Amino acid sequence: MDSQLSFYEARVIGCLIEKEITTPEQYPLSLHALTNACNQKSNREPVLELSEAIVQETVDALVKKHLISEKSGFGSRVVKYQHRFCNTDFSDLKLSQQELGILCVLLLRGPQTPGELRTRTERLCKFSDVHEVEAVLKHLTERDGGPFVARLPREPGKRESRYAQLFTGDAPEMDRTKPISAAADLSPSDQERLAQMEQWVGELRDEVARLKDRLQVLEYGAEPGI
Fold this sequence. Notes:
Elements: H1 7-22, E1 29-30, H2 31-38, E2 48-49, H3 52-64, E3 68-71, E4 80-83, H4 97-109, H5 114-120, H6 130-142, E5 149-151, E6 163-165, E7 180-181, H7 188-220
Parallel strand pairs: 2-7
Antiparallel strand pairs: 1-4, 3-4, 5-6
Helix pairs in contact: 1-2, 1-4, 5-6
């Protein structure tokens, strides 16, 4: 892989691919819609709690990597985002619908068994049986420019091995039992920046409250807070 994705970048790319397929009428996505997609409680493992500021930072990084582009409709001031990860004129990566469905689920849900992939890709593509899923997975491990997935060692007591996407490298799995906060995957310097941003937001809220009080006095001649 020429360029590795961070965990958050993988979530953003996976969300854009998913929404492009399942809700094309709402695609590309605004920052607000993309944040909601990243924090969605269904079809996501682990569940995240990202702020729009963190998602915007992630999007900006992906724009620099030429994996996302901005698109604004005629007369619209809302910036929307679309992926350039694959199957576009700007990407050398061309995937079949089945390959795309598998990689999308792996980006959004982490390592999966072939049986889980068959069930969880139903909205994205069609497989006749698990053997067809295994054949596509095998192809993804052998494709030119890859491998794009890897077969993990079988866990004790499990009948099937799981497969993981390799766009985020070989990072250890995260605890899937609880939601992850926006600061969980950040470096100390990024956590400091996040804390500063949260402080600014708090100060802005206080300022808005003061302005509302002053407006109340000007409009009604009432004392603030009455």
